[in-house]
Amino acid sequence: MVRFVHTSDWQLGMTRRYLTPEAQARFTDARIQAIRTIGALASERDASFVVVAGDVFESNQVERQLVLRTLQALKEGGVRFYLLPGNHDPLDAGSVFKSNVFVSNCPDNVFVLDGEPVEPEPNVTLVSAPWRSKKQTADPIAEACLRAGQVGGLKIVVGHGGSEAYAPDPDRADLIRTAPAEAAIADGAVHYIALGDRHSRTEVGASGRIWYSGAPEPTEYRETDPGLVLDVTLTESSIDVVPVKVATWRFSESVETAIDSSADVARFRNWLDGLPGKERTILNVGFVGTVGLAEMAELEETIEHYRPMFGAIERRGGDSDLVIVPSDLDFSELSLAGFAARATEELGVLAAEPGEEFQAARDALGLLYRLARGAA
């Protein structure tokens, strides 16, 4: 029997365009801290080692400081970590795993899976399928499954790549094929296949022995089961796979909120106020309804007030379903005249009917209203 932790897709160095520099630093730090969490979890559960099934780094061009911080976290993790190069960080001539900073600072408990069989425990062999370039031309794990049949004991294949079962184009040559993988398991050539590439925990096939672990921290909206690692207990005749949550961040995509009055804006404000863990939440919001400029300004001000408290707040698709209908009351107290009054009238027409100029007109109206109100 062997017990180990299966994880993947750390993608250390990942950036997100909607994060401020301060939020990006916290986002990066959380992904490095996850390494320590995984190590502690492995120790607490008496796991012998951790396998990382590809994409340890976001690319082979990550900064030196990030590599050093990663290696320090791996060292502090305590247990043995086996790292597989994936499509983001392939084992090519410029590989981060071959760089001087990695090689000269790699702690004794960290090993790069380069395709050679490794025995982390007596009678247990890791058979790896590292990526050696950014592209594959065949099933990424087929050859590793064949090699596994040539050794004895418990065999764990560690691979990375998309599965035909979840690909929009299942005929692509570079996808992992379920049937031969399941056949290798049925024949006893392989006892577990640890996969990376999908960022959500996913079972492949019906054997219960082929899994994507998913990323330990979420990376985008609509991931179905992110933020986990897998605690695997394995024998030749049995398998127990237990998902364990390690994530501290979350991506939240809210349903479209109806905004038709100032009271609706107040309800939205109260909802934002009540959300826990704001500093680790990346929120995507959208709105429907019909509002005047006063309500729109109130909504914008609410979002801008709460934005620094969150990891990020994104607006969905320009809120094309939120219609602005300026009323006389919106500008009655602002004493607009001349060019400003004419511009307001023209922008109001453009903002009332979605089209090519809808978004720009809506934004311009809102800005004009807020500026005019501030000057009044």
Description of the molecule:
The protein has 376 residues and is of the alpha/beta class. It has helices at 21-44, 64-77, 100-105, 142-148, 178-186, 262-274, 293-306, 328-332, 338-352, 358-375, and strands at 2-7, 49-52, 80-83, 110-112, 118-121, 124-128, 154-160, 192-196, 202-203, 210-212, 228-234, 239-245, 250-253, 257-258, 281-285, 287-291, 312-315, 322-324. A six-stranded mixed sheet has the order 4-3-2-1-11-12, with helices on one face. A six-stranded mixed sheet has the order 5-6-7-8-10-9. Helix 1 links the parallel strand 1 and strand 2 (49-52). Helix 1 (21-44) packs parallel to helix 2. The longest helix has 24 residues, at 21-44. The chain is elongated and about 85 Å long.
Strand content: 15-25%
Span of the ends, CA to CA = 76 Å
Within the largest sheet, what's the order of strands? 4-3-2-1-11-12
Quaternary state of the chains:
single chain
Rg from Cα: 26 Å
Structural class: alpha/beta
Biggest sheet architecture? 6 strands, mixed
